[in-house]
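2024-03-11 09:14:02 INFO worker-7 job=invfold-0412 stage=load source=structure_tokens
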């Protein structure tokens, strides 16, 4: 009777514990709940431990069987806790990973790398062409003396040709250069022939700003001095340069014109790129486009540069950069170059 009572008591205790555990584990939602259950059921002060203590009261012949019941339950509980911990840990891990995930579908932020202004792009292209023909680049000052801009270039002080180029004066005899030709005598003073240079840069004229003329513009000057340089050299160089610049075989025309520093002087015209000569708006029905001034360097100018005109001869030319862009890129208004309107500038992606 006592034995039976003991067995029943043990079985009841174990079954109660088992169903209590079943309820507890059903409620588990996270790994920390498992920890709590481990402490509760398997800890030193837990119910299983209490049952172990109670074993001492059990008669010796019953003890192994009773001990086994307790151990079986203990193993069952810890196996179920382990299993559920493994599943929960995996779920928690993947929840954590997806929370930390970087959303690479977000569109990137657009960057606007700078680009060269169309004037610089065009100048670079011109420089490359002349460099391939053996010319090197020189630069002259934007603010210069009357001497280099006018006098050394054979403009007498009261010469009416000075009126052709309305000048911004900074001080008496100091001015904003009206053309890149101010480089000519400076270079002659610095170098002995053969001289073969180009000089890109700004030029300034005190004129009314319109779609076609501006107080500020860009030119590229060329100067070639050596023994026996002739008109034929000038023609050939200009033909080759212009064909490379406009990327087609162009037809040129040299028209007599007057510049005090060249003799003879001329304007170079290009057969109209749009109509091919039959007459259109671009060429104002003339069939020709004015592209640059040029000529053979005047003997007086050579003398001013310390070069003997009996031994040497040379040619020079000056060309407006904006004008080339008007013709090549169909820009209508010269003022847009300095407006800094991104919509205009972005049309010329460049490099
Ligand atoms: N300097 C002249 C101008 O600005 C152009 C030119 C340069 C003409 C060299 C002849 C020779 O119009």
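2024-03-11 09:14:09 INFO worker-7 stage=emit residues=351
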């Amino acid at each position: 009777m006592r034995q039976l009572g003991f067995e029943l008591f043990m079985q009841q205790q174990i079954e109660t514990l088992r169903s209590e555990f079943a309820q507890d584990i059903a409620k588990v939602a996270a790994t920390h709940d498992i920890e709590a259950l481990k402490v509760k059921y398997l800890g030193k002060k837990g119910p299983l431990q209490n049952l172990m203590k109670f074993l001492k009261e059990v008669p010796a012949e019953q003890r192994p069987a009773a001990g086994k019941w307790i151990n079986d339950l203990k193993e069952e509980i810890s196996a179920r806790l382990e299993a559920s911990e493994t599943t929960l840990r995996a779920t928690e891990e993947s929840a954590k990973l997806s929370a930390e995930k970087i959303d690479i579908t977000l569109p990137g932020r657009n960057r606007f790398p700078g680009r060269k202004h169309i004037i610089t792009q065009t100048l670079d292209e011109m420089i490359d062409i002349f460099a391939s023909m053996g010319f090197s680049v020189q630069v002259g000052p934007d603010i210069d003396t009357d001497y280099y801009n006018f006098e050394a270039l054979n403009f007498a002080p009261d010469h009416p040709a000075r009126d052709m180029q309305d000048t911004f004066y900074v001080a008496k005899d100091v001015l904003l250069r009206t053309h890149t030709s101010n480089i000519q005598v400076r270079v002659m003073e610095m170098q002995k022939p053969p001289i073969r240079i180009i000089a890109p840069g700004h030029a300034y004229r005190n004129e009314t700003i319109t779609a076609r003329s501006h107080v500020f513009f860009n030119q590229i000057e060329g100067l070639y001095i050596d023994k026996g340089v002739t008109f034929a050299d000038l023609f050939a160089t200009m033909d080759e340069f212009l064909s490379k610049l406009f990327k087609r075989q162009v037809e040129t025309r040299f028209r007599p014109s007057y510049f005090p520093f060249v003799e003879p002087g001329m304007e170079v015209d290009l057969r109209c790129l749009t109509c091919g000569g039959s007459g259109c708006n671009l060429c104002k029905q003339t069939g020709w486009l004015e592209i640059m001034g040029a000529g053979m360097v005047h003997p007086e100018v050579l003398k001013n540069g310390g070069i003997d005109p009996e031994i040497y001869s040379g040619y020079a030319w000056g060309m407006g950069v904006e004008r080339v862009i008007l013709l090549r890129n169909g820009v209508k208004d010269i003022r847009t170059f300095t407006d800094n309107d991104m919509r205009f500038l972005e049309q010329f992606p460049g490099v």
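2024-03-11 09:14:09 INFO worker-7 stage=report msg="The mean pLDDT is 90."
2024-03-11 09:14:10 INFO worker-7 job finished
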